[in-house]
Amino acid sequence: MRRKGKGSSGKVFVWLVIAVVCFGSGILIMKNGVSQAIGNTSDPMVTIPEYEDNTKVTTDFSIIQDGLCDMGFLITEEYSFEAIETYTKDKKIAFLTSEATFSYSYEGVVEAGVNFSDITVDVNEETKEIEITVPKSEIKDISIDEDSFKKFEEEDHLWNRLELEDYNEAQKDFKKRAIEKAEERGVLEKADENAKKVIGNFVEQLVDKSEYSIVYKEA
Question: Mind telling me which residue stretches traverse the membrane in this protein (predicted)?
Answer without folding.
Answer: 12-30
